[in-house]
Design brief:
The complex is a heterodimer of chains A (738) and B (229).
Chain A (H helix, E strand, L loop, with lengths): L7 H6 L4 H11 L5 H10 L2 H4 L4 H4 L9 E3 L6 E4 L4 E9 L1 H6 L1 H17 L4 E11 L7 H19 L3 E8 L8 E11 L14 E6 L9 H4 L20 H14 L5 E6 L4 H13 L2 E5 L12 H6 L5 E6 L4 H10 L3 E9 L3 E6 L2 E7 H6 L28 H9 L8 H4 L10 E3 L6 E4 L6 E7 L2 H6 L1 H17 L4 E10 L6 H21 L3 E7 L3 E2 L2 E2 L3 E10 L16 E5 L10 H6 L12 H16 L5 E4 L5 H10 L9 E4 L8 H6 L6 E5 L1 H14 L3 E8 L2 E4 L4 E3 H16 L3
Parallel strand pairs in A: 4-5, 9-12, 17-18, 24-27
Antiparallel strand pairs in A: 1-2, 2-3, 3-6, 4-6, 7-10, 7-11, 8-10, 9-11, 12-13, 14-15, 15-16, 16-21, 17-21, 19-20, 22-25, 22-26, 23-25, 24-26, 27-28
Chain B lengths: L2 E5 L6 H12 L4 E4 L10 E4 L19 H11 L3 E5 L1 H8 L6 E3 L7 E9 L15 E8 L3 E3 L2 H9 L3 E6 L18 E5 L5 E4 L17 H11 L1
Parallel strand pairs in B: 1-2, 1-3, 3-4, 4-11
Antiparallel strand pairs in B: 5-8, 6-7, 6-9, 9-10, 10-11
Helix pairs in contact in B: 1-5
């Protein structure tokens, strides 16, 4: 196969431009053979090289007092005290999940788990952020069903709880759903493993599953947009085996208790190619590998196929020769393949041998250094016209509008999804899915990690910079609402075709918003992933910079949750209301319009309000807390009330309109940022309001908790049972085909 | 009391039950790898939840033939208490320690949520801290928990007081919508005839700690420690 002449067609089919191919020839000093060309192709693909995004990603703040490892490692690492670190990252698996939803989503979970345990961390929680096409689109139901089953099928089997996430629908995702998976792991800070191959003569060892012909060119697939023929790309989707992943987790973590492993890297996108190049490149070394020693699933595999396969559940490690027996024993106990496939050399070259013959011989540093970095043209979208709230009529019934919103695809209960995920295994899930952030206890302690993922794509569409900032601020707010101190974020940036200036403009704008928010909130980016080409026949998805945030709770006994706790408590709104309905769910779901600018994000106020709320929680002065986001104030009140339906006694509330000059529907459904709802004992209200004023934080008593209904004083009322049925029913009846 | 937890490749609730047992027992149970053909002296053997051997052939089918299960079956026949939870329940039915099979849930989906259970027989080492008829809350998390057996066997286990738990409404009544997986007679857990082996789909170890939202599961471990110490 290596004898094949490299024609311009072959170069093109590998996604390389003629100019890039010229660089290949210069680096090689000769024409590459097919295996070598394949290696250049994946190493320089958008997916692996970040060629369109690198320039902009550099702008993000990535350091902070708690950051141990920022972007550039398999996942980010932040110090959580007591000698421990949280390792986390979010990653996309969009293209495969559209073509083959079950396996695409399952292997997305598998891949992100490996990124985390590669660093020595035991995975303790999974999250996922899902974006699907319009519910009425013919493919949507099939995709939801397959993706959810795939995530559950993988996560449930490996025994890591899937504790939450988001799921929304919009027609822009009809041709490209988004599946973003996040894993959080826990490690001792002095036991973090990295991927730099060092020690000339050390062994390069392959462990895990055998290599098959699946997933060849998966990274290249994810670096081009879809068209009518995308179905034909099904063979590029990998097949997952969560059982083997579970064994691999246990075997790796067991061996990591010793000092045997010098470097370790999972084989993700571009498989053996990217893992071996990454390790040698970081170590400034070379690697010589005998591909005949790679465990294979089928006979007759060529060097090209072995190097480009994306078979799952595989790792590459570097160990000292004298520790081989010790390492082998661990993997044999777990019945996993263990094969010495090469050695670390001082040549700076990747030399691949198969059956005694050289299959490829490439210089590592020049190949990595010459990976293209592009400054693609970018054009900011025109600023959206502000939406004039005065043009809207009041709804006939506030509670009818609320019911419509609560039963809308984006706001309805996602119970149908998370009940298919084992969210309790490991017995440390102290806040289950459905709240602001999930909280998992740090095993064996009273500390907790709050975890959330957020993004509001309709804001990013209308105004990328505000949308990017808002996504970061919303995660910060969700963490704060549990009482957690936000630590850091991972970003999973999903966009259309970067070759279009309009898409790059969205990307650049969102990055700028993320940067500003991270800086203002001292909330660095420690890991991330970029997924471009989420586009079909020129129609791109809404810009979707998904943000995964984690926060630390010192004592879970003092954390807050959204559910009302007692009737007869005061309901307080923290933060300012301007009745902003531009780009809101109310406008979209009730008026059928997607228009206007998103609500402004005032980061200084965001921080002030959040810090105030966190102090209230720490001082046990509030009994429940919830952030106000999609759908606005009344939706947030309803969510706090409906959360009591799982408990012993349903608790509702009565809300009174303030005299603030805003139209009732603007105040009740506006999506102004930086706001929280809290409940407090009556006796504490006056002092809380006084403290808020002293802190420069707007706070207003808006109502009282009460019986099992929601009431707007002097207007409507609705029972929690009726509202709950509407909220809970939409997704399950939709999925049942009703 | 000496307790041991069997660990198969693919077990994933082994640590959870280890923690729950240690909480009631005051010391760690022994963790026993599936290749062990000989067991230490034990008063209680726990077969935990998870996906033993990936559950690839049929849930629990391969684990039932592992070296350690031959020994577990022999011990169980000699009267050692065996608590088999979730995948463990599937394993012990496959191994012939308990009658019936666990089929795929009627919904065809994995289900993870708290359920209400009615204690049907408090006369065992496992259930002594509960009262017959009491309603307790525990989580389920399974894809194949739909208990089925033939009519004669069903009549026999019902008549012999072998039903340990049934899925029920919060007030203890049996309702179709309170049966999460389609199990025969809403059966959530059964004993062997001697009530020395309990197989159950719900996870008592997951609600044995107030921080997790409930402690109804703890009574099972406390009761076992009391009965077997």
């Amino acid at each position: 196969m290596n004898e094949q002449a490299i024609t311009p067609e072959i170069v093109k089919s590998h996604g390389l431009t003629p100019e890039e191919y010229q660089t290949v020839i210069e680096i090689m000093g000769r024409e590459p053979n097919l295996t070598e060309l394949g290696i250049f192709s994946v190493m320089w693909s958008e997916h692996c090289s970040y060629k369109s995004s690198k320039k902009w990603l550099r702008r993000l703040p990535t350091t902070g007092p708690r950051v141990i490892h920022g972007p550039g490692e398999n996942a980010g690492a932040v110090d959580i005290g007591d000698g421990q670190a949280a390792i986390f990252k979010m990653e996309s698996h969009n293209h495969p999940s559209f073509i083959e939803p079950y396996q695409g989503a399952a292997t997305g979970v598998g891949g992100i788990l490996r990124d985390v345990f590669t660093m020595g961390a035991r995975p303790i929680a999974n999250m996922n952020a899902l974006r699907f096409g319009a519910p009425e689109d013919a493919k949507t139901r099939h995709l939801v069903s397959g993706v959810v089953a795939g995530i559950g099928g993988y996560g449930n089997c490996v025994g890591v709880p899937t504790v939450g996430g988001e799921c929304t629908f919009h027609a822009s995702y009809n041709g490209n759903n988004l599946v973003n998976a996040m894993t959080v792991g826990l490690v001792e800070t002095n036991k973090i493993f990295l991927s730099s191959a060092s020690g000339i003569g050390n062994l390069v060892v392959y462990v895990g599953s055998k290599t098959g012909r699946d997933g060849i060119h998966g990274a290249t697939m994810a670096s081009a947009e879809f068209d009518e023929d995308s179905e034909a790309k099904r063979p590029t989707v990998q097949v997952g085996d969560p059982f083997t992943e579970k064994l691999l987790i246990e075997a790796c973590l067991k061996l990591m208790e010793t000092d045997v492993i010098i470097a370790i890297q999972d084989m993700g996108a571009a498989g053996l190619t990217s893992s071996s190049f990454e390790m040698a490149s970081k170590g400034g070394t070379g690697i010589e590998m005998d591909l005949s020693a790679v465990p294979v699933r089928e006979t007759g595999m060529t060097p090209y196929e072995i190097m480009l396969s994306e078979s799952q559940e595989r790792m590459l490690m570097v160990i000292a020769p004298e520790r081989e027996a010790e390492a082998r024993a661990v993997f044999e106990k777990w019945e996993l393949d263990f094969s010495v496939v090469g050695t670390v050399t001082d040549t700076g070259r990747m030399r691949l041998v198969m059956n005694g013959e050289t299959a490829a011989d490439l210089p590592i540093a020049p190949l990595v250094a010459a990976a293209p970095e592009l400054d693609r043209p970018h054009e900011p979208p025109p600023p959206p016209a502000a939406f004039d709230e005065a043009t809207l009529n009041a709804p006939d019934s506030v509670m009818a509008a609320l019911t419509t919103l609560m039963a809308s695809p984006d706001l309805c209960s996602k119970r149908w999804i998370w009940e298919q995920y084992d969210h309790m295994v490991m017995a440390d899930t102290v806040q289950r899915p459905g709240g602001d952030a999930a909280v998992v206890r740090i095993h064996g302690t009273n500390k907790g990690l709050a975890i959330t993922t957020d993004c509001t794509p309709r804001y990013c569409t209308a105004d990328p910079e505000t949308g990017g900032a808002q996504a970061v601020a919303e995660t910060w707010r969700n963490l704060t609402a549990t009482g957690a101190a936000p630590l850091a974020i991972t970003d999973c940036l999903n966009f259309g075709n970067p070759e279009r200036a309009e898409v790059m403009g969205q990307f650049v704008g969102c990055i700028e918003g993320i940067r500003k928010a991270c800086e203002a909130l001292d909330y660095p980016v420690v890991s991330g992933n970029v997924s471009f080409y989420n586009e079909t026949n020129g129609r791109a998805v809404q810009p979707t910079p998904g943000i995964g945030g984690i926060g630390l709770i010192d004592d879970i006994a003092g954390m807050a949750s959204p559910a009302f706790k007692r009737a007869g408590e005061a309901l307080l709104l923290i933060g300012e209301s301007a009745g902003h309905l531009g780009a809101s769910l109310y406008l979209r779901e009730i008026e059928g319009r997607e228009a206007g600018a998103p609500p402004p994000v005032d980061l200084a106020m965001e921080r002030r309000n959040g810090d105030f709320v966190r102090t209230l929680i720490a001082d046990a002065r509030v009994t429940a807390c919830h952030d106000v986001s999609d759908g606005g104030l009344l939706v947030a009140v309803a969510e706090m009330a409906l959360a009591t339906l799982n408990g012993d006694e349903p608790i509702g509330a009565e809300v009174s309109l303030p005299e603030n000059g805003l139209a009732p529907h603007c105040w009740l459904f506006g999506e102004d940022q930086g706001r929280y709802l809290v409940t407090a004992r009556m006796d504490d209200v006056e002092a809380i309001l006084a403290d808020a004023e002293a802190a420069g934080v707007a706070a207003l008593r808006i109502g009282t908790t009460g019986d099992a209904s929601l009431t707007l004083t002097g207007a409507d009322t609705i029972s929690l049972a009726e509202l709950g049925a509407a909220h809970d029913g939409w997704l399950s009846s939709y999925m049942a085909g009703a | 009391m000496k307790a041991g937890v069997i660990v198969f490749p693919g077990s994933n609730c082994d640590r959870d039950v280890q923690v729950a047992l240690a909480r009631s027992l005051g010391r760690e149970p022994e963790m026993i790898w599936h290749r062990e053909a000989e067991l230490p002296k034990l008063d209680l053997i726990v077969v935990p939840g998870g996906f033993s051997y990936g559950d690839y052939l049929r849930c629990g089918a391969m684990a039932a033939h592992s070296p350690v299960m031959r020994e577990v079956v022999a011990r169980a026949r000699a009267g050692t208490r065996v608590l088999a939870i979730c995948n463990g329940f599937q394993v012990v039915t496959e191994a012939g320690l308990l009658p019936g099979v666990l089929m795929t849930n009627a919904s065809l989906s994995f289900i993870c949520r708290d359920v209400d259970l009615r204690v049907e027989n408090a006369g065992s080492a496992f259930t002594s801290r509960y009262a017959t008829g009491q309603v307790v809350r525990m989580p389920i998390a399974h894809h194949g928990g739909n208990y089925f057996t033939d009519d004669d066997t069903l009549a026999r286990i019902e008549g012999g007081g072998q039903v340990a738990f049934r899925y029920c409404a919060p007030d203890g009544t049996l309702r179709e919508d309170a049966n999460p997986n389609g199990s025969c007679n809403a059966i959530a857990g059964i004993f062997n005839e001697a009530r020395t082996v309990l197989g159950m789909m719900p996870h008592p170890e997951r609600l044995a700690d107030p921080a997790l939202g409930g402690t109804d599961g703890r009574a099972m471990f406390d009761g076992l420690v009391e009965a077997l110490s």
